[in-house]
Specification:
globular, mainly alpha, 74 residues, Non-ribosomal Peptide Synthetase Peptidyl Carrier Protein, Chain A, 51% helix
Length: 74
């Protein structure tokens, strides 16, 4: 899995946020469109596409897209 592919998959969970807003250092909870529903969609995407179960509690401890990518890589 490549970081750029993960960022694209991550960005696909958002309907209105421009792709230019997404980078490894993006603090995703600070995005205007972020909500608990977006978080659930993100967790579902990770499980379906990457076959990794990330809990809501684990996601709460992660701040950036890059940190989430690294967590999934472990």
């Amino acid at each position: 899995m490549e970081l750029n592919d993960f960022i694209k998959d991550f960005a696909d969970q958002f309907d209105e946020t421009d792709f230019s807003e997404f980078a490894a250092e993006t603090k995703f909870r600070e995005l205007e469109e972020w909500s608990s529903l977006t978080g659930l969609a993100l967790l579902n995407m990770i499980k379906a596409k990457y076959k990794i179960h990330v809990t809501a509690e684990q996601l709460l401890k992660i701040s950036t897209i890059g940190e989430l990518f690294n967590f999934i890589q472990q």
